[in-house]
Every structure is written in C-alpha cells, then in structure tokens.
Design a protein that fits this description.
This protein is α+β, with helices and mostly antiparallel strands and about 300 residues long. The chain has one domain. The protein contains 6 helices and 13 strands. Strands 1, 2, 3, 4, 5, 6, 7, 8, 9, 10, 11, 12 and 13 form a 13-stranded antiparallel beta sheet that branches. Helix 2 runs antiparallel to helix 4. It is globular.
C-alpha cells in the first residue's frame, strides 16, 4: 500500500467523522429546546446546534448497539456493532443477506477472542477511540467558524441552511484544511435544534502537502441523514460518500461509502469493551427479518 493512500483517506474520513461527531456514543445531547426565533442569524443558529449536539457536562454519555449495513459493489454486508466507554467493536454477521460460511464465522470469532484475551489489544483500542473522539470533537466545534451559513428556505418541518467556506477561517491543521473546499447545505430540526441532514461537495481540488501526498478531485460529494430514534436521541441512519483522487506516485484512489444504520438500542452504561466482545461472541447470528430501513429524506 502506497504511503499516500492511508494519509489521504485518513484525513478525509476524520473530517467526515468530525462533521458527524454528534452520532458518537460520547454526544449525549440536551433535551429539546425551543424553536429557533426568526431574529436569530443563520450563523448563530448553527452555533446553537453545535453546542446542543455536544451537550452539557452534566449529561452522562450514552452507548448504543445497532446494525451497520455496508454496501460495496452492490453487495450488502451487515455488522452488529456495540459502543462502550472503552471503544466500539463490531462483528460481520451476514453477507448479501446470508449467514456467514463456517470459515468466515470462525475468523470473526478468532478476531474477537484475540481482542478479549489480550489486554494490550483492548487498551490499544480504547486509546485509539479516545484519541479519535478528541480530534472529532475539535473538528465539530470548528463548523460555525469554518463555514458561512445563510437561510435557504425549508424542507417540510426542517430549516435549511446553505454553507460555504469562510475565507477568514485559518485552518489549524491538515484535517481542517479540507473545510476550505466544501460547500452545501444542512437541514436542522428547529424545535430540538439538531442536525437532520448534511449534503456537501468539494468545490475545488484538495491537495495534501501541495499535492505531494495526493489530492481529491473537485466535485466529490458526501451526504448524511440522521433521525430521532426516540427521546431526542438523534442518530446516523444513512451515509453516502463519493470521492475520487490520486495518491502518492499517481495511484488512482476512490472513496465510496454507502452505509445504513438500523435498529438502535441503548446499551447499559456499565457495559465494558470486554462485555461487548463477549456478547458478540455469544451472538452467532442476528435475525435479519423485518429490519426497519433507514429513512431517506
């Protein structure tokens, strides 16, 4: 694997994760707030949304289990996912709607066994999780500063804000530099002041280290849908990313993601990473019948 490939992909994925920070286990959110006043500027409304998504210090974090359906080349793969205070763990359970073959299931079990019985692996996973959380929160907090927002009508009961790069924003690191190349719109629930949808595109080419590590082509898109899963708990239900570019030594790269997130259930606050791993090992297979599909607005 060429050096430029993980660098370019890692930066983009971190930026998208930062934009979606509120879906993480660490974002508790606050109770529903009053509807946005018409006197509030679009910029101020976005600041309030970001603050509302991050929640207050008195709110304990919540953790969730759910199904993640990843569609690659038209083939859906379903994962069972557990979030815990020690990190997130998942297990592949079906491919194209069918249970895993014996060899595939054994590989999944072996991977989980290694995570469960080697404390160094668990500590490494927890450390990586905490590191990602901190970086993603930092990026999410930058949104009202990195972009200029303006009112752009409504879609149903949601308020639409268009955004474009803020020319006065000075990116503090490489991840934030990508913000200078993004434009699009967000949809906001004005009652709860929560993000319901984000639709963005690259308005110009993104170069990493002046193109030495690679670039992403103009026109790349990402589209995200979120929904209230009950009790004001807004979660990610759909993600689509379509980016093209070139990595170091002229390796053509494509970043395509098409994911659905289904059947959210809250985990006990006391669940550890080891508890989640044991639960996944015990769950040989999950019922795929009657799954609620993610809503596309």
């Amino acid at each position: 694997m060429l050096f430029g490939w993980p660098k370019v992909c890692g930066i983009l994925e971190l930026v998208v994760a930062g934009i979606l920070f509120a879906n993480g286990a660490w974002a508790a959110g606050r109770p529903g707030s009053q509807a946005a006043e018409t006197s509030v500027s679009a910029q101020e409304l976005m600041r309030e949304v970001v603050q509302n998504e991050l929640g207050g210090p008195v709110e304990p974090p919540t953790y969730w289990c759910f199904r993640e359906v990843e569609i690659t080349n038209g083939v859906p793969k379903t994962y069972e996912v557990y979030q815990t205070k020690g990190g997130t763990v998942r297990k592949l359970v079906t491919v194209n709607g069918q249970p895993l073959a014996a060899a595939q299931a054994e590989r999944q079990k072996g991977r989980l066994d290694r995570l469960l019985h080697h404390s160094a692996n668990a500590r490494s996973a927890a450390k990586a999780h905490n590191h990602d959380v901190n970086r993603e929160e930092k990026l999410f907090r930058m949104l009202p500063h990195a972009f200029l927002f303006r009112y752009d009508g409504r879609e149903g009961n949601l308020v639409k804000l268009a955004f474009q790069p803020n020319p006065q924003f000075v990116p503090p690191d490489r991840e934030a530099q990508v913000f200078h190349h993004m434009a699009g719109f967000v949809l906001i629930d004005p009652e709860q002041k929560r993000l319901a949808e984000i639709n963005g595109r690259l308005t110009s080419e993104v170069k990493f280290f002046w193109g030495l590590l690679g670039h992403l082509d103009k026109g790349g898109t990402f589209h995200v849908w979120r929904a209230d899963e009950g009790g004001g708990n807004w979660k990610l239900v759909r993600l689509e990313v379509n980016m093209q570019g070139e990595a170091l030594f002229f390796e053509t790269i494509g970043i395509q993601e098409n994911k659905r997130y289904l059947d959210y259930h809250q985990d006990p606050a006391s669940m550890t990473l080891a508890d989640a791993v044991e639960q996944l090992i015990q769950n040989q297979q999950i019922d795929t019948g009657g799954a609620r599909t993610a809503r596309k607005r």
